[in-house]
Predict the structure.
Amino acid sequence: MKKIHILVAMLLFATILLPAVGWAQSKEDGIRLHNEAYALQEKAQSHADLKQAEQKYLQAIAIYQRVGERGNLGLAYNSIGLIYAAWGQYDKAVEYYCFASVGIGQFPMIG
């Protein structure tokens, strides 16, 4: 449980401070990567396909954090949780679901 608290604290820290660090990529870049990841996840036929989707979600998360896109941040974390659940890595899935609940629960959805 302590590990989850630390991870949630890190998430909050990142979503508050990282947007001030730089704006190298736009919200639209994050959304594009997010959509590509979702498409890969939906048609995944192998572990490698899901791994590729995970990497795109992580790239989208990095952009969302930099630009302060909090609503989609929670959705991306949830999607990674679904990938880990599909792999049977339930502890890791729960970590990402916790990140998602902080992102979705604390901040309004942008849409």
Summary: The chain has one domain: 2-12+28-106. DSSP finds five helices and no strands in the chain.
